[in-house]
Amino acid sequence: MAKTASSKEAILAAGRREFAARGFSGARVEAIARAAGCNKAMLFYYFSSKEKLYRAVLAGALGEIFAELGGVVHARLTPERFMERFPGIYIRFLARNPDLPRILVFDLIRDPENFSRTMAGIFRENSEFNPQRFLGMVRSWHDQGLIAEEDPLHFMLNVISLSIFSFVGRPMVEAISGLRSEDGEAFYRARIRSVVRLLKKGMLK
Amino acid sequence: MAKTASSKEAILAAGRREFAARGFSGARVEAIARAAGCNKAMLFYYFSSKEKLYRAVLAGALGEIFAELGGVVHARLTPERFMERFPGIYIRFLARNPDLPRILVFDLIRDPENFSRTMAGIFRENSEFNPQRFLGMVRSWHDQGLIAEEDPLHFMLNVISLSIFSFVGRPMVEAISGLRSEDGEAFYRARIRSVVRLLKKGMLK
Amino acid sequence: MAKTASSKEAILAAGRREFAARGFSGARVEAIARAAGCNKAMLFYYFSSKEKLYRAVLAGALGEIFAELGGVVHARLTPERFMERFPGIYIRFLARNPDLPRILVFDLIRDPENFSRTMAGIFRENSEFNPQRFLGMVRSWHDQGLIAEEDPLHFMLNVISLSIFSFVGRPMVEAISGLRSEDGEAFYRARIRSVVRLLKKGMLK
Amino acid sequence: MAKTASSKEAILAAGRREFAARGFSGARVEAIARAAGCNKAMLFYYFSSKEKLYRAVLAGALGEIFAELGGVVHARLTPERFMERFPGIYIRFLARNPDLPRILVFDLIRDPENFSRTMAGIFRENSEFNPQRFLGMVRSWHDQGLIAEEDPLHFMLNVISLSIFSFVGRPMVEAISGLRSEDGEAFYRARIRSVVRLLKKGMLK
DNA sequence: TATGAATGAGAGTTCATTCAT
DNA sequence: TATGAATGAACTCTCATTCAT
Q1: CB distance D153–C173 less than 8 Å?
Q2: Best of A161, A162, A203 to disrupt the B interface by mutation (most B CBs within 10 Å)?
């Protein structure tokens, strides 16, 4: 990487790519170091183990995602506005950072405990997105008769599933359908449109 | 495993569990053999490599899923009926076979090419579910003005995302929300209800 | 090593030599395997870690020593007879097995806790030498007015020091004195004579 | 360490402790530096290698020991006086500097050649203790019929073994006997008494 | 005199795979 | 069909040492 960027940052970035591509066990410390343009030993100098580097990468990934979410959620948000904006912001963000959903999903499967712990830590440190506040908002939407879904957990599962699985599941659906979707921009635009329509029509009262 | 089951079957079953829990690279041949109650060498005797055992496991998993799907899709299916039945069947099936979604998603990320190839092979051998026929059906639903989504790829992404991500994403949403969902049956019932309602209200015209 | 000897034995023997020559940290797993005529991985196959191999070596060394001691100590032993025979048997045994005192002393310094634990284990399994019985014997010798030293701990320290330090300390004394002692047999004979005389004259009443 | 002590001194002291506890190979340069309160690089700045630092530590240890010995040996020394005073002085000195016997014994085993060379160097620079003069004294004691042991090498081995092995062998004897000796002062007093009595009774004519 | 960052060689350990029986 | 022993390559990690400042 650029000589100006500190080695630590370079390792973190390279680790993110490698872990996203191969998962924790599949990733090679050697490959990460090479990609970061430095010595294997530096990785241990800064992160002391592959595991800890991985945690740092995961924490970074989650941190970015929730920083992004913080921007969408604010006091006077209506459910309509939320459903119009969230999928676009989220899907575009994941498209710009394709490693993120992979790392998330890999870890979600491999070690859910660790995932939860890391997330809890993120929320503690990141004041921009407050999950409790958001949950309260969803509940009040239901109480005001604005949305059909009364359980905020399922509300969120619906929203997040549609957004995040767009990425992971795309090859699956392509394989099933035999259709190759347009690459890049066109696909995301269509995807966002489809999700927004489904959410608004399906969840607003 | 049981002395009655052949070693080969025992290895396949153990492999499925191990691969689901740790992914391809994370899985250990030794652990699979031990769990199968036999010698490491037997694994190579029957499957000749870890990679080939993995492919057999993945093929088995996909085969089961599409056999299940075959039961839902038939000539006179209406979209309403499809949306009422699919999530329930699919979610309950995945709940009974929790290793399946994990293996799918792991492999989807790790090696999408292989995933597609394996799927294509499945379709060739498995006459019960014909994706092309199903796609045609979705298109005709749209042409008849029964559904809002014109692109069958996004139609399927919507349906599948909501079902499969229920499993993978549950710990994520629990971590965000701080809510522990009811375990097992109650959760699945609620999940199915929510997905069916969303799909019917959101995608039917 | 001989093809007939099992690899496990060969590794144990090679480990003893290597640990004696270089201590625990100085010893190289690679070197042990090479000396044992087998692959590094075999060492882990049988002993699972360098540390555990080391413990096995130490336990073996201690076991041999106490098996030897068991031969000297019996019911009707007089202190005179003990002092006449013990140094000879012990010194000759250590001379035949020069790795033993080195390993003992290395470990005594490095990890006294581990040393004690290992010894305790040896005594439990090795019925030939019963330290408690021997201690009782020493006490009764003093009560009968046969020996001057009333504390059995110091009695043993005296006896053992003179025997074991003959080996470790020899290069030290040679360096101080500038004298090169005769190698091998002649030295041991002289050493045994000197120790026996000192013990008998100095400790018998 | 203390800001007043120069870094060089601090490193030497820390090195002595670390080498004594873990031997040459077991000692870590990093740990020494940390214990000395300074940077790893400083260690190389002052001593240019781990090996050279070790030699400096060993030389220091031996120097202190022989400086101490110089005080005991003087022209008109009688063997009786020597045996009365030497064990006490030596044992108390080692008790005050517990790292010394460990380093000595570690090195004695690991690299006797180096040990001898270092010792020779010490004697050349340290006029207070002249081993040749002392040996002549022992020989003349024998010629005058004052002591039983005619070989000065065995005379010294006897004296030194009993003193130095008190430290190294103590955990061994405690493990054998199951007795925990009194800690500290009481043990040393008893040990000195026992050694002095044995030497005087056993070696004086 | 002091430091944080960097390095290369090599350490212990793991792992898929094969062999002899 | 089954097994315990063996292997070589690769892996994560360590460590003495050096460099730039």
Answers
A1: yes
A2: A161
The tens digit of pLDDT for each residue in C63-108 reads 888 888 888 888 788 999 999 999 999 999 988 888 988 898 888 8
C-alpha of C68 from chain center: 10
pLDDT digits (tens, 9 = 90+) for A59-103: 999 888 888 888 888 878 899 999 999 999 999 998 888 898 889
Give the protein-side footprint of strand E (Cβ within 7 Å). A 6-8, 38-42, 45; B 27-30, 40-41, 44, 48-51; C 27-30, 40-41, 44, 48-51; D 6-8, 38-42, 45
pLDDT (0 to 100) of residue A192: 95
Closest Cα to residue A33, out of A47, C193, C187, A61? A47
Long-range contacts of D88-94 (CB under 8 A, 24+ apart): D88/D192, D88/D196, D90/D163, D90/D164, D91/D163, D91/D166, D91/D188, D91/D191, D91/D192, D91/D195, D92/D188, D92/D192, D93/D65, D93/D68, D94/D163, D94/D164, D94/D166, D94/D167
Q: Tell me the three-class secondary structure of chain C, residue by residue.
A: CCCCCCHHHHHHHHHHHHHHHHHHHHCCHHHHHHHHCCCHHHHHHHHCCHHHHHHHHHHHHHHHHHHHHHHHCCCCCCHHHHHHHHHHHHHHHHHHCCHHHHHHHHHHHHCHHHHHHHHHHHHHHCCCCCHHHHHHHHHHHHHCCCECCCCHHHHHHHHHHHHHHHHHCHHHHHHHHCCCCCCCHHHHHHHHHHHHHHHHHHHEC
Q: How far is the CA of C38 from the C1' of F7 (A)?
A: 9
Rounded to the nearest angstrom, the gap between the alpha carbon of residue A28 and the centroid of all alpha carbons in its chain is 23
- Do residues A57 and A19 lie in contact, with contact meaning Cβ atoms separated by under 8 Å? yes
**Do the Cβ atoms of B191 and A115 come within 8 Å?**
no
Residue numbers in D 23-82, CB below 7 Å of strand F:
27-30, 40-41, 44, 48-51
pLDDT digits 0-9 by tens, B90-127: 999 998 898 988 898 888 888 888 888 888 888 887 76
User: Does D22 contact C110 at a Cβ distance shorter than 8 Å?
Assistant: yes
Are C170 and C181 spatial neighbours (Cβ–Cβ below 8 Å)? yes
Global pTM?
0.90
Asked if the Cβ–Cβ distance from C172 to D197 is below 8 Å, we say no
Which element (helix H / strand E) includes A124?
A: helix A112-125
Average pLDDT, chain D: 88
Is residue A101 a contact partner of residue A94, using CB atoms and an 8 Å limit? yes
Kindly list the structural domains of chain A, giving each domain's residue range(s) and its CATH number in brackets, ordered by start: 59-203 (1.10.357.10)
